[in-house]
Amino acid sequence: MPVVSAKPLEEFAARVLTAAGLEPEEAAVIAGGLVQANLRGVDTHGVLRLLQYCDCLAAGEINPRPRVRVVSRSAGAVLVDADGGYGFRPTLLAVELAVELAREHGLGLAGVRASHHFGMAAAYAERIAEAGLIGMVTANTGPVMAPFGGARPALGNNPIAFAVPRRPEPPLVLDMALSQVAFGRIRLAAAEGRPIPTGWAYDSRGRPTTDAGEALRAGLLAPMGEHKGSGLSLIVDVLAGILTGSPVGHEADAHGRRRGGVGHLVLALRPDLFLPEAEFHAALERRLTEVLATPPAEGVERVLLPGDLELATARRREAEGIPLSAALARQLAALAERLGVGPPPWASAPDESP
Amino acid sequence: MPVVSAKPLEEFAARVLTAAGLEPEEAAVIAGGLVQANLRGVDTHGVLRLLQYCDCLAAGEINPRPRVRVVSRSAGAVLVDADGGYGFRPTLLAVELAVELAREHGLGLAGVRASHHFGMAAAYAERIAEAGLIGMVTANTGPVMAPFGGARPALGNNPIAFAVPRRPEPPLVLDMALSQVAFGRIRLAAAEGRPIPTGWAYDSRGRPTTDAGEALRAGLLAPMGEHKGSGLSLIVDVLAGILTGSPVGHEADAHGRRRGGVGHLVLALRPDLFLPEAEFHAALERRLTEVLATPPAEGVERVLLPGDLELATARRREAEGIPLSAALARQLAALAERLGVGPPPWASAPDESP
């Protein structure tokens, strides 16, 4: 299993995306976002996505030269048009604009329309928190979950991320999809012949199932908290999709079967809206200390805060490198060869003899 | 089981609260909120609360004469001080101010500090939607849930409500607490000797339990979606509690053991922030029609939207009256007698012979 440092992996990803048709600046931004996800241990949103992104670019489903621009601006809110390209660059712009608005007016809202996959939502919320503000970022996706009481996919697992600045600690970051689990965990259970807990997925008739294979065949993820996650997904469709003028539901497709498939919404709030910033931070640290002091459940070492695991993984991987599975490494090497961008950083020097 | 019309029940509740020490105007607002919850079928937040509220008022835990006032105002945000009284009146004021700000600036945020129980969160979000805007309302509460991996209550079940205006239908309303279920459902299972599903509660060592009795003894509700609801509760503590300068966590107490125990946050957004209002409504109706057309799961008649059940209950109860359990009716009658406010509307005329 190759272990690769973040920087060469990011450069490799940027080369691949450039060869797939993106402008170098756009490729670099996306490569940075993917590797940031790998660093945090969110490998589902890491360089694994290069395979999908290059397929979508090759199929012409993504605008490789998007003209990302602000199309509406008022005192409290701006709208960015992603022009059918990937969501990374327009959402970073939305974050920047929301932070500017919030600095001036206390809170700032930025929508992104006609966008595609933007990687890990946490990255954008975290950037707001690093600027000293409270951030919320959300996106709609195509349907993968059953609505409560339904037997067909009709709802996105619409991610929501929050980040709260801390002093001097790194931000508190919560990033969650609205399905109870991702398909990946069900695939793993199926591969290992294990049952899944009820509450993860439904069978093809919409009934709770513990059979991982049946769950994969039905393709019906359960919303977290049943009717609660179901309702919340619809609310995110409204906020990220409908409000921004982006496609939602069966018209939406974060995986790129059409140009401009989803929308995003970014909210930034000043922590000192209503009280001095030092008081906000003192109260926050008191609260977090209190939660961390909760006696752990049997078999648990200690209670963690949202984002603690990801932060620990990032520190480890920054020092030790990012492990890639042998299968992924092979697929990425084949992709690089097909695109003619030279060997990946984990490959030994290519054999140049005839 | 008495069945009572909303209006006389509301008048009765107002008389009780006035006799318990509230000013008539404040009592009328709270009585209206409680009966609105009963109408929607949310009986946990209905006139049942008169018992608790009168106890708290008698114990001096609630300010019966709060000076509700705006203490901070900027272009995008206002803060209302509840002055240690109940949350109904200050949150209605916050809603009004958030709607005003949103009409002018596109979005408006209003915090409420030093507050107490505000009844059903949906009522406030719905009022924003009735004004034509998208509403979000949230509140922190005292600890009733285990943080993920913990074995003691440390997190509130912090309700979040959203409402989205529809034309011409009544608003789409989602109101959820962040525990998977309320204690009431576990109490019911225990009373009926039924096990509870895993995912509802933990035992005293923080392990998932299916034993309803054990769950009640431990008093550890499970967050919806495990680590997801756990993290989200902490985010609501930040938004509703810390940001507004209100107590959070173990310092917070929505049930009134101290004056000014919790905070609330209200956000209003114009649906026409980024696109013409008619387009927003057309896209929303297309999306809702799509979700409603999902084939239902086996044993389910049809897929419902968030708030559909509550709306149906409200229509029925507006026509037929609100059923009260015999036990609740007795307790309320005893309360009324103790406070000397005359018989409840469901009692036969009192025997006035000596």
Structure description:
Two copies of one chain form a homodimer. By secondary structure, chain A is an alpha+beta fold. Chain A has two domains: 3-59 and 310-347, Orthogonal Bundle (Hypothetical Oxidoreductase Yiak, Chain: A, domain 1), CATH 1.10.1530; 69-179 and 223-269, Malate/L-lactate/L-sulpholactate dehydrogenase, NADPH binding domain (Ribosomal Protein S8, Chain: A, domain 1). Chain A contains eleven helices and eleven strands. In chain A, the strands form three sheets. The first copy, chain A, has a seven-stranded mixed β-sheet with strand order 2-3-4-10-5-6-7, with helices on both faces. The longest helix of chain A has 18 residues, at 88-105. Chain A is globular. The interface between A and B is large, with 81 and 81 residues.
